[in-house]
Amino acid sequence: MNDSPTIDVRKLRIGLHVHLDLGWMAHPFPLSSFRISTEQQLETLRGLGLDRVRISPQRSDALTLQGLVGEGLLSPEVAGVAASEPAAPEAAPEPAVPAETPEAAERRRRREALQAEQACAAQAERHYSEAGRALRRSFELAASQPQAAREQCEAQVNGFLDTVLGAQEMAIRLLSEGAGDRGSMHAINVTVIALLLGKQMGLGKPEMFDLGTGAMLHDIGKIELPERVRWIDPLSPGVSNHERQFYQEHVAHGVALGRKMALAPGALLVLAQHHEHADSTGFPLKLGADKMNTAAKIVALVNRYDNLCNPATPAQALTPHEALALMYGQMKAKFDTAVFGAFVKMMGVYPPGSVVQLTDDRYGMVVSVNSARPLKPCVLVHEPRQPRNEAVPLNLETTPSLGIRRSLKPQHLPRATLDYLSPRPRVCYFFERAREPFLLSAGSAA
Questions:
Q1: Which of 30, 135, 149, 320 could pair with 351 as two cysteines, CB 3.0-4.6 Å apart?
Q2: At what angle do helices 205-216 and 146-164 cross, to 10 degrees?
Q3: Which residues of the chain have pLDDT under 50?
Q4: Is 360 helix (H, G, I), strand (E, B) or coil?
């Protein structure tokens, strides 16, 4: 089977029978071997990060193979007998299928869009959970087997970089709260956003590697702290000076563990500086922007953003839009100007998780933002006629006449809308390759 011919993933066609050389958790399809039957399957296959895919000519559609041969994408020898046979089907012609009505076509497009959306969401949540388990294992090994902990973390970061540094545009996806636990969730959120921000700023791969490693392990020193101070907010007025000093020691603990793990100098600087501020008000050394490593500037900003969205006390959580507005209005001096500008440009005014009202007065929740075009996110819209589990997020790129009017706190939503949208008390982020927008009719999007 491994001698099967391969084809560029961009040249795949409906009718080809493919074999995916991936683990079952690495793709969203029920089987690893199947015949492509829809455009959505093609789109998902192209988003898996593969360069080439194995095909089975004997199990593929003959006309599809002939077309590929005619385009010079497959040789007649590789395509096999099926490509050289007459175009007429072996069996008797089937009765003509009635033309699809516009209403039926719209229902089919919506069904296919929903299936693709659910498959991508499930795949992102599987990857997020896998990353969380691997990260917890790295933390468990850090003290007793530091080299193994580093190797596991670095392998995970390399996997992230393979995705992030690809040619395709990336999107930031909102996941369900159950995708991760408190400890791993924060580290993965920070790593995902930091890597996308590093790419936005044009960092090279070595810098991105140090950024990813430092972001993943920036809080590893907390394993040396008692649980009661591990997740406090050092800026909260309710935290005592003793607790604050105790908490701040996690930076030194982290650097010590990072040295045992033999982390690269750039990654170590992230551990050492992720609580420093550009205006010299951070800790432990009160460094200014001119003395901070670029990766540390990125992680310091993203770390603060995620802590505002996901504080230790959920009742104090801000929506992503509120967190961004607070950082812009009251904290901008604490962050490097270039880094903060790139962050706002990438996340958009309404980051994933923001609850919004559209210009046609409907309510929705931002579920995905293309980091290259953040002003037109994907929004899950409250549509009473559409069951929640069948709702397809509305891509504002496809509806130029529609936009976002304002952001709201979840508690200000009508009760039925709040139940429908179910805003997350905690915000989990992961990345996915940006997909082509689904063009649904205005009526089906409404």
A1: 320
A2: 130
A3: 1, 81-88, 437-446
A4: coil
The three-point CA angle 120-52-20 to 5° equals: 55
* Cα angle, residue 414 at apex, residues 419 and 382 outer, rounded to 5°: 60
pTM here is 0.76
DSSP 238: T
Q: What Å distances lie between residue 147 and 21, 151, 152, 154, CA to CA?
A: 30, 6, 9, 10
The residue with tokens 């690269």 is 264
Torsion of CA 150, 153, 159, 162, to 10 degrees: -60
**How much of the chain is in helix, strand and coil states, percent to nearest 5?**
50, 10, 35
Spatial contact of 186 and 249, defined as CB atoms under 8 Å apart: no
253 three-state secondary structure: helix
DSSP annotation of 31 reads -
Cβ-based neighbours of 442, under 8 Å, separated by 6 or more: 399
- Two tokens, residue 195: 């890597």
Largest CA distance in the chain: 84
**pLDDT score, position 83:** 41
Residue 52, classified by CB atoms within 10 Å of its CB into exposed (0-12), middle (13-18) or buried (19+), is: middle
User: Alpha-carbon distance 441 to 446, whole Å?
Assistant: 9
Burial of 138 (0-12, 13-18, 19+ CB in 10 A): buried
pLDDT tens figures, 46-100:
877 788 899 989 889 888 888 888 888 888 877 764 444 444 455 555 566 567 7
**Helices assigned H by DSSP within 261-350:** 265-273, 294-309, 320-330, 337-347
Closest CA relative to residue 326, chosen from 312, 308, 310:
308
Integer-rounded Cα radius of gyration of the chain: 25
Task: Tell me whether strands 363-370 and 355-358 are parallel, antiparallel or unpaired.
Answer: antiparallel
pLDDT for res 446: 37
pLDDT tens column, 109-138: 777 777 777 777 777 888 888 889 899 999
CB-CB contact of 64 with 15 (8 Å): yes
DSSP β-bridge partners for residue 394: 379
- Segments making up each domain of the chain, as ranges: 6-85, 113-347, 355-425
Listed residue (264, 338, 249) closest to 298, CA to CA: 338
Q: Which of 328, 421, 435 is nearest to 373 (CA)?
A: 435
